[in-house]
Amino acid sequence: MDQSPGKWYVDRVPSPMTRSALAAGLLLAIACSGKPSWKEYSSGAVTLQFPCNATVSAAVAKCLLSDGSEFALATVDKGIPAEQELTEMTEYVKGLPKSEILQGDGYPFKWREVRQFVKLDAWLWYVDGKEYTVSVTYASVDLPPLASDFFSRVKVKGK
């Protein structure tokens, strides 16, 4: 092996550990830079697709992306008439300090609210006495690019 200055690295072969680390880094970069892996999820009358693996606790299914965006579906059994639910949601959103109704004349009822450090965009459907709220919570100025795709993947039985 030539030990002259500037030549030693030419003949040097990376160790198996270095090769493994480089391969793992490459695989991680490929996995993180790819498109989301949409996963189907159903709750009652709603079927949707999450852009990541959802965790379920009580009546909420949600997934969190590396940018901090949270995609969720909350299901609540209300048992009131649909018109009453629409009236209650309108009053609720109007009562929030920083919110706006994006579509309030029917279902889906759409609104945006600003919380302490995040924004939330939500769509609500009311079917057979159950409230289904699909939402995206985010810390960026604009709605995350995957949000519109997420909302477009919501299917409601009978709608």
Keywords:
Protein Transport Mog1p, Chain A; 3-stranded antiparallel sheet; 2 domains; 159 residues
Q: Give the name of the CATH superfamily of the largest domain.
A: Mog1/PsbP, alpha/beta/alpha sandwich
Helix content bin: 25-40%
| First-to-last CA distance | 74 Å
Q: List the helices and strands in order.
A: HHEEEEEHEEEEHE
Q: Main sheet, how many strands, which sense, barrel?
A: 7 strands, antiparallel
Global geometry = globular
Mean pLDDT: 85
CATH C-level of the largest domain: Alpha Beta
Structural class: alpha+beta
Question: What is the beta-strand fraction?
Answer: 35-45%
Neighbour order of strands in the largest sheet: 3-4-5-9-8-7-6
Number of domains: 2
Number of strands: 10
Which runs of at least 5 residues are low in confidence (pLDDT < 50)? 24-33
CATH topology group of the largest domain = Protein Transport Mog1p, Chain A
CATH architectural grouping of the largest domain: 3-Layer(aba) Sandwich
